[in-house]
Design brief:
By secondary structure, the chain is mainly beta. Helix content is 14%, strand content 37%. The protein has one domain. It has an 8-stranded antiparallel β-barrel with strand order 1-2-3-4-9-8-7-6. It binds manganese (II) ion.
Amino acid sequence: MAKYRTKRDFKLTSEPKGVARKNASNEALIFVVQKHQASHLHYDFRLEWRGVLLSWAIPKGPSLDPSIKRLAMAVEDHPVEYAKFEGIIPEGQYGGGTVMVWDQGTWEPEVDIESGLRDGELKFSLHGKKLRGSWVLVRTKRGFGRTERASWLLIKHRDRYASTSDVVIDKPRSVLSRRLMAGIAAAAGGNVEKAAESDPHR
Ligand code: MN
């Protein structure tokens, strides 16, 4: 998690500093999806594995429709306690803006995790409040060097949890606090107007 730490000034941001932790082998693995209004809105999709959260940034957020593939850019591992982080990252800091815990729960691999990550095809099921059933992450481009990130696609498998409803629009609230982005920004002294841009306009 060196990359995670070097990007952040922990005197200025309230994000967790984080230590890699070992999880007991009988403990369920957690997942979290954080809606993040930074310079651009995206959804951070994170799967716990080997004491960290493997992380992907999904610009459009997950889709329950198996015919829709959502671009997921691999980003740096995050500490496991990051899964509880909801609030604001100060402007000027890395990822400055508002963060919502949009979904959380546990995940189960459907394949060997290490081979799935290496071969670029990770099948798994999610047990969240909004995201359930079987999914796959497929790598379409490897990341090279220090700046290029690997590209993956997040795709819902056909099962009883598949749907054509637009889950990011239909279920816009925090699963932790029921707040919208504007409410989270307001409570933490953030930029309410900017946060509200990513709330549904009804
Ligand atoms: Mn982010």
